Amino acid sequence: MDPSAYIILSAILFTIGAIGVLLRRNAIVVFMSVEMMLNAANLAFVTFARMHGNLEGQVIAFFVMIVAAAEVVVGLAIIMTIFRTRRSVSIDDPSLMRN
Amino acid sequence: MSMSVIVAAASEGSTGEQFTFWTCAILSVIGALGLVLSRKTVHSALFTALTMLNLAVLYIANDAPFLGLVQVIVYTGAVMMLFLFVLMLVGVDSSDSLIETLKGQRLIAVLLLAGFAVLLILTLGTALTGTQSVGLVAANEEFGGNVQGLAHLMFTTYLLPLEVVAALLITAALGALVLAHRDRWTPKLDQEALSRLRMERYAETGAHPGPLPNPGVLATSNAIGTPALLPDGSPSELSVPPPLRGESRSRLAAETTEIDADVTEVREIAEGKETMRPKALRDVDGHTDLAEVYPEEKGD
Questions:
Q1: Into which CATH architecture does domain B13-92 fall?
Q2: Testing the interface with A: which of B96, B150, B178 to mutate, by most A Cβ within 10 A?
């Protein structure tokens, strides 16, 4: 099948993820949107691997998954810590640096 | 549908792959939109899981069965559950405020990203339409399969990145432990401190320091709501579990009168005023009369 279909799907998912990052205020939803963007990039990698008949794209996608897992662990721990001190997960609240 | 069927359908480039692609593409876009548009965070998480599952099927359709399974195990299995776990800790009902802190931010963001999407789709679409996939059949055959081929790459060309990523994972695990750790502000109460506390409370308020008494085990009932009897025959409220105690005081009272009746009956038997024989037997014709058994009472 034409690889462009997969790539366009990947572009759409990436854009929706970016919209989520920009529009939502809840830190956890923002985080899930970042995951969505990473997944869209992974889909592009896998499609390119098949397009070129080369497994390296899949290896890169695998590394992306591992790094995403590590990122989720640390990011959620940070969200927990912020929630503990401020009782909120809104990313607008920690604006201590303002002014 | 088993995985080999999907892979076979995909490698043919047949209508089977078309069907798989369109089903999963539509479902994953629905999931992505649901993630952005849901008001409740739990719904967002579940929509994300939907997208990730459909992407796993698309990976498998793209000759990447290993990545498809890793996607299911790592993303839907571990990462999304971690998200839900943190959601439960943070509080499920934490929803977004609708007030814009930056004026016009939403409009600008949507316009910018619409432009971005059009640009991306047009350039990639024109660049890629008409290209034919080489396919991974040859690459997978080389070492006997997809997993073997990936393993060969990972442990030869990409050995150093693999080691670095391993170090990254350990660092991330340690970092999460350190970040989520909280020092104790008060000393932990041991057995001695607890018993001291209990006795102090007893001295101040007279609260019962020992374990609570069991519910009553009586001839009429041994249900959990039955109060135990104190030595003077009065029911002990402490022996009834608090939920039953508070909720149905009337039932407790009713049972208490019942128990009182039992107690008087038992007492009468002990004092010899009544026989232990069931009433039904006593009334049977030809049965030995009570007067013959207790002649001395007859004489009164």
A1: Up-down Bundle (1.20)
A2: B96
Touching A: B residues 74-113, CB under 8 Å: 74-75, 78-79, 82-83, 86-87, 89-90, 94-97, 101, 105-106, 109-110, 113
- The helix/strand/coil state of B236 is strand
Pick the residue of A39, A47, A81 with the most B CBs within 10 A to test the interface with B by mutation. A39
CB atoms B35 and A13 under 8 Å: no
* Top-ranked range on mean pLDDT: pick from B3-12, B199-208, B229-238, B248-257: B199-208
- How many angstroms separate the CA atoms of A14 and A66, rounded? 19
**Span B256-277, average pLDDT:** 68
Predicted confidence band of residue B1 (pLDDT cuts 50, 70, 90): very low
Q: Shortest CA distance to A50 belongs to which of A87, A2, A13? A: A2
CA distance B113 to chain A (A): 6
Listed by start position, the domains of chain B span 13-92, 135-178, 213-297
Distance between A75 CA and the closest CA of chain B, angstroms: 8
Of A23, A39, A56, the CB nearest to B106: A23
Rg (CA), chain A: 17
Query: Helix %, strand %, coil % for chain A, to 5?
Result: 80, 0, 20
Q: Is residue A36 within 8 angstroms of chain B, CB to CB?
A: yes
| Residue B180 burial class via C-beta count within 10 angstroms: exposed 0-12, middle 13-18, buried 19 and up | middle
For B4-31, what is each residue's pLDDT tens digit? 555 554 555 578 888 999 999 999 999 9
> What is the model's pLDDT at position A99?
53
Least reliable range by pLDDT among A34-43, A59-68, B12-21, B259-268 = B259-268
